[in-house]
Design a protein that fits this description.
This is ZP domain-containing protein. InterPro entries: CUT_N, ZP_dom. It comes from Onchocerca ochengi. With 77 residues, this protein is mostly beta strands. Helices cover 0% and strands 39% of the residues. It has one domain. The strands form 3 sheets. A 3-stranded antiparallel β-sheet has the order 1-2-5, with no helix packed on it.
Length: 77
């Protein structure tokens, strides 16, 4: 199962595969937007593909951070 991590600078989505990963990780409906997708080829020999988006660029990928004051956190929409 993919794992999402919110850090102070980036939001990162990382997966783990048994085989070398070939494909694209992207934000739904934003695959062709620069910075909203990561492409991997077999020659990269990756089994932990990831997509990392800087927080100051998330709106260009159609995402929004909203403060949730009831639990003192942020929601990614």
């Amino acid at each position: 199962m993919p794992q999402a991590t919110c850090g102070p600078e980036n939001i990162t989505i990382e997966g783990t595969t048994e085989e070398v990963f070939e494909g694209v990780i992207f934000v739904k409906n934003w695959r062709r937007t620069n910075g909203c997708a990561a492409t991997y080829s077999l020659s990269e020999n990756v089994t932990t593909p990831l997509l990392s988006i800087p927080l100051n660029h998330i709106t260009q990928c159609g995402l929004e951070l909203r403060r949730n004051v009831s639990i003192a956190s942020f929601d990614l929409i």
